[in-house]
Design goal:
The chain has about 550 residues and is of the alpha/beta class. The chain has three domains: about 5-170, Rossmann fold, CATH 3.40.50; about 185-345, TPP-binding domain (Rossmann fold, 3-Layer(aba) Sandwich); about 360-560, 3-Layer(aba) Sandwich (Rossmann fold). Helix content is about 40%, strand content about 15%. The chain has a six-stranded parallel beta sheet, with helices on both faces. Helix 9 packs across helix 14 (about 315-330), helix 11 runs parallel beside helix 14 and helix 16 (about 370-380) packs parallel to helix 22. The longest helix has 20 residues, at about 340-360.
Length: about 550
């Protein structure tokens, strides 16, 4: 058997696992990149290491398999932390690869030596420093297995420089174990089903775990059988088409009037793969009084962490719903949706609300209202679009259905509860490379865009025609709102000097245009879509009203609007 270097063994394994892209910025080429030269894996050259981890996050979210990123020792590896942190928070499979100083000089102050294992100890499922080249294949297989099984998340694999160059005859890759489903305890399913059978106003909350399990078809069947409205978390968005009559948008901070009415009147909440965190629950203050809770999660440690379930269920969401449907078979007579009184009421309320939203999104006042931009962008780019969103005061409008309605499975990549600024600006490139046949739109404020607009040339270089919708209020809008409520004591929030985004886009090889007139919104978006269709990334900057906020945003933090 021909001997190979440690990095050769890792790249060989990545190829065998079907990895198509590695996002990163090389240091010494003998660390990973020279091994990539003879492989079919495309190295995506980012302009900052954090961008690589953000792209790997979006790629992993879309593919349900680990997005792979790399950085060189010391500051390079440290720059991966934001994206790894977001993957840990959002339960997204990711493999972060790091080079490190050679083991032969460990502790002596070698160039860029740093406590890298400690960087990741609290924000990964597993971290491992490869001690010898003959352990590289095992380590890779173990890392990929852990990233996708149980509660998915990031793993970190560190390869010291001398280990990466060491020759080994042990290079045969042992395939990782793909996602293994865990069937729930039948007794727990029975107790959950009995609660659902007697509930009068059940509501389903689908989180990222539901999306990851691929339970979309089963979820729709369950919702229709019991006339149960479905709300999602940002991480779960896309598990049900948002044009379905029982889809009522998102929970917590991100809810609209219809979702609020359904949720607050519920007598039973079925939580599927949601961590029920602060923004998803309004600091746990929104939970409907007297409602029972069925909590389903793949990770036992999540059960009862913040809300106490009447029926805790450990298991895969898809298998849980299948078992629930089997138990209910013959016990529930399904009527046509249009004949169900609860569904009929929801449909009528939705029609009235949609008409209201349509009217308000026709607002032609200046500055442009962000809701108009979001509403038009959704309809211009179409139902198959993948929305990749930031989490600021104006791009939050894209979270609110029906301003943006996710039309297809895997139609949204949202940050986890960390909401790292710039995740979407860079991450949308990873989403496009994961799903090249689908339109990809990033909604971002000017603050987050300035952090990572450096990746526009990356989109050009790697033929990833995305559109950045930049909502420019010339400030850090969420923080400025807090300062307005604090006697207008504005400090360090206004961008009094701001670069020309259009010129930067054009200089980067992208299409760029600024819009200040509401009448030009649709035209500019259509122009961006046309550029994308011919392979050119686009940036459309809208100068927006800084004080127009969604209804759910105002409900979430009422003290800011008194």
């Amino acid at each position: 058997m021909v001997s190979k270097r440690g990095w050769d063994a890792i790249v060989e394994g990545l190829g065998a696992e079907g990895v198509g892209h590695v996002f990163g910025l090389p240091g010494h080429p003998d660390a990973l990149y020279d091994s990539l030269y003879d492989s079919d894996i495309e190295p995506v050259l980012v302009r900052h290491e954090a961008s690589g981890s953000f792209m790997a996050y979006a790629y992993g979210k879309m593919r349900r398999s680990p997005g792979v990123c790399f950085a060189s020792p010391g500051p390079g590896v440290a720059n991966l932390v934001p994206g790894v942190l977001e993957a840990w928070s959002g339960c997204v499979p990711m493999l972060a690869l790091g080079g490190s100083a050679p083991l032969t000089h460990e502790g002596e102050g070698a160039f860029q030596e740093a406590p890298q294992m400690e960087f990741f100890r609290g924000i990964t499922k597993w971290g491992f420093r490869v001690p010898r080249a003959d352990r590289a294949s095992w380590a890779l297989s173990r890392a990929l297995t852990l990233a996708v099984n149980g509660k998915p998340g990031p793993v970190y694999l560190e390869v010291p420089f001398d280990v990466g160059q060491e020759k080994t005859k042990e290079t045969r890759h042992h395939p990782s174990i793909p996602f293994v489903r865990t069937r729930p305890d039948p007794d727990a399913v029975k107790r959950a089903a009995e609660l659902l059978l007697v509930a009068e106003r059940p509501v389903i909350v689908a989180g990222g775990g539901a999306l990851y399990s691929g339970c979309s078809a089963e979820l729709v069947k369950l919702a229709e059988l019991f006339a149960a409205p479905v709300l999602t978390t940002p991480s779960g968005r896309g598990v049900i088409p948002e044009d379905h009559p029982l889809s009522l948008g998102q929970v917590g901070l991100y809810r609209t009037r219809l979702g609020r009415d359904a949720y607050q009147s519920a007598d039973l909440i079925i939580s599927l793969g949601s961590r029920n965190e602060e923004f998803q629950t309004a600091a746990w203050s929104y939970y409907p009084e007297g409602a029972a809770l069925i909590q389903v999660d793949i990770d036992p440690s999540e059960l009862g962490r913040n809300l106490q379930p009447a029926v805790p269920v450990v298991g895969d969401a898809k298998l849980f719903i299948q078992d629930m449907l089997a138990y209910a078979r013959g016990r529930v007579k399904r009527a046509p949706l249009s004949k169900m009184p609860r569904v009929k009421g929801i449909v009528e309320a939705t029609a009235a609300y949609m008409a209201e939203v349509y009217a308000e999104c026709g607002d032609s006042s200046k500055p442009i209202k962000t809701k108009r931009v979001i509403y038009e962008a959704c309809r211009v780019f179409g139902p198959k679009t993948v929305l990749v969103n930031e989490n600021g005061s104006q791009d939050l409008w894209s979270y609110y259905w029906p301003y943006w309605a996710v039309g297809a499975l895997d139609g949204c990549v949202a940050p986890g509860e960390q909401t790292c600024m710039g995740l979407a600006v860079a991450g949308c490139i990873g989403a496009k490379l994961a799903a090249p046949e689908r339109p990809v739109v990033c909604t971002t404020g000017d603050g987050a865009f300035q952090m990572f607009m450096k990746e526009m040339p990356t989109a050009v270089q790697h033929k990833a025609p995305v559109t950045w919708v930049v909502l420019n209020n010339y400030s850090l809008g969420w923080i400025k709102l807090h300062e307005r409520a604090n006697r207008e004591r504005y400090i360090a929030v206004d961008f009094e000097a701001q670069p020309d985004f259009v010129k930067i886009a054009q200089a980067s090889g992208c299409y760029g245009v600024q819009v200040t007139d509401p009448g030009d919104v649709k035209k500019a978006l259509r122009g961006a879509k046309k550029e994308n269709e011919r392979g050119v990334p686009a940036m459309v900057e809208f100068v927006v009203d800084p004080w127009d906020f969604p209804e759910g945003f105002k409900e979430f933090q009422p003290d800011l609007f008194r």
